[in-house]
Every structure is written in structure tokens, then in C-alpha cells.
């Protein structure tokens, strides 16, 4: 586990009662949500949705950083549709994910190069590499 490097930020949260009927709050009060199991009638989000949002936001930022470094203009309409699957096999839960990236107006070869480099520097991509099934596609 890497613990070197300059510490930029520490997220602090408290979750109680898990995904079924839980609540989660950040120490700064900016996040205060109810949790619900996927498909539940209960009002709330689930960990897979939160992970999808977090990873896609990080990946989008990585694309912006790579494009800026290479002096490539990105369209304001660029977006990432993230899908995170909760799976069960042999009584063991795991996740898989798909990131569907849209960079309209960017040459496909250039867009693929941006996405590939972004995947190398995105913190969530690094954290999941080799641990879960991931498909990244350019739409």
C-alpha cells in the first residue's frame, strides 16, 4: 500500500446500518444521504451508484488533464456513462464496471489516446486495475 507522496485530501465519512437501511454522512456535512439496496422501494442510493459517480468524475478529470497537457480542446458536451455491476458467484459478491466515454468532435484516434492515458493516471483506475473486470469504450 502506497502512503508516500503529498497528502492532498482525506475524505471522512460515517456510515451506519449498511446498504439496506443505512445513512452516510461526511464530516464536513456536504454529503448526507440515505442508502438503499439496489431495486429497493426505499428512497436512497446504493454503493454501486456512488462508486460509478466517483470513478467517472475522476476519469473525466484525468481526460481533461491529459488533453490540457497535449493542448487538445475538449467539447463541453464530453461525458462518461458509468455502469457498475454488483455480482454474486459462489456466495461471494464482487463488482464489474463499464465506462462509456463520449468525446464528440474529437478525432477517434486522438480520443482513444486521451482515454488510454487517462486510464493510466486516474486514481480509481489505478485502484481497480487487476481487481475487477473493466471495459472502457469510446462511444
Automatic annotation (TrEMBL):
PANTHER family reported in the protein's UniProt record: ORGANIC HYDROPEROXIDE RESISTANCE PROTEIN-LIKE (PTHR33797:SF2)
Query: What superkingdom does the record give?
Result: Bacteria
- InterPro entries to which the protein is assigned, alphabetical: KH_dom-like_a/b (IPR015946), OHR (IPR019953), OsmC/Ohr_fam (IPR003718), OsmC/Ohrsf (IPR036102)
Q: Could you tell me which species this protein originates from?
A: Rhizobium loti (Mesorhizobium loti)
Family to which the UniProt record says this protein belongs: Belongs to the OsmC/Ohr family.
Coiled-coil segments, which residues? none
Q: What is this protein called?
A: Peroxiredoxin
Q: Which processes are annotated in GO (biological process)?
A: response to oxidative stress
Amino acid at each position: 500500500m502506497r502512503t508516500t507522496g503529498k497528502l492532498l485530501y482525506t475524505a471522512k465519512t460515517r456510515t451506519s446500518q449498511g446498504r439496506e437501511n443505512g445513512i452516510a454522512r461526511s464530516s464536513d456535512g456536504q454529503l448526507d444521504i440515505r442508502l438503499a439496496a439496489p431495486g429497493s422501494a426505499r428512497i436512497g442510493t446504493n454503493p454501486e451508484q456512488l462508486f460509478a459517480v466517483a470513478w467517472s468524475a475522476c476519469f473525466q478529470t484525468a481526460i481533461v488533464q491529459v488533453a490540457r497537457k497535449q493542448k487538445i480542446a475538449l467539447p463541453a458536451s464530453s461525458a462518461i456513462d458509468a455502469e457498475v455491476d454488483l455480482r454474486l458467484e459462489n456466495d461471494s459478491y464482487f463488482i464489474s464496471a463499464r465506462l462509456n466515454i463520449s468525446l464528440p468532435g474529437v478525432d477517434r484516434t486522438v480520443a482513444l489516446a486521451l482515454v488510454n492515458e487517462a486510464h493510466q493516471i486516474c486514481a480509481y483506475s489505478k485502484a481497480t486495475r487487476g481487481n475487477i473486470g473493466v471495459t472502457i469504450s469510446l462511444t
